[in-house]
Amino acid sequence: MPFRDIYGQEKAIELLNQAVHRERMPHAWLFTGQANIGKFKTAVALAQKLNCRKNGEDACGECDFCLQIAEQNFLDYQVLIPDGKFIKIDQIRKSLNWLHLHPDQAKNV
Ligand SMILES: [Zn+2]
User: Fold this and answer.
1) CB–CB of 21/46 below 8 Å?
2) Model confidence at 108: pLDDT above 70
3) pLDDT tier at 28 (50, 70, 90 boundaries)?
4) Angle 10-21/39-51 helices, nearest 10 degrees?
5) How far apart are CA 85 and CA 87, in angstroms?
6) Considering only CA atoms, which of 60, 33, 36, 39 is closest in space to residue 48?
7) What is the Å distance from ligand 1's center to 93 Cα?
């Protein structure tokens, strides 16, 4: 889902777009706030924008990379969500190990 399809997150999207255009992408973003306001969709859209094969102003949402990210099937993209009520230490350990791997498909940003 490209940024253009997300509603109610205009300020967050503007901030993310500014970071992309300045080529100063932090190593991590933390999306916080109330439930069901579009945080996850916005995070997915950012991953798509950064890796979209079409290099447009927004992700195309249709190329193989955009689709793989949407389906959580992109090798260099990982979603960490709580296993139960909390994120467990083992999940964090696995993520940290994963973070040490070199990217396979992702653009180097
Ligand atoms: Zn794309």
Assistant:
1) no
2) no
3) confident
4) 20
5) 7
6) 60
7) 30
pTM: 0.86
The type of residue at 106 is A
Ligand 1 centroid vs 91 CA: distance in angstroms? 29
Question: What does the pLDDT look like over 6-26, one tens digit per residue?
Answer: 999 999 999 999 999 998 888
Nearby residues for ligand 1 (ion, Cβ within 5 Å): 52, 59-60, 63, 66
| 94: pLDDT strictly greater than 90 | yes
Long-range contacts of 14-20 (CB under 8 A, 24+ apart): 16/42, 16/46, 16/49, 20/49, 20/50
pLDDT at 87 exceeding the cut of 90? yes
Which two tokens mark 78? 């990982």
CATH architecture of 3-99: 3-Layer(aba) Sandwich (3.40)
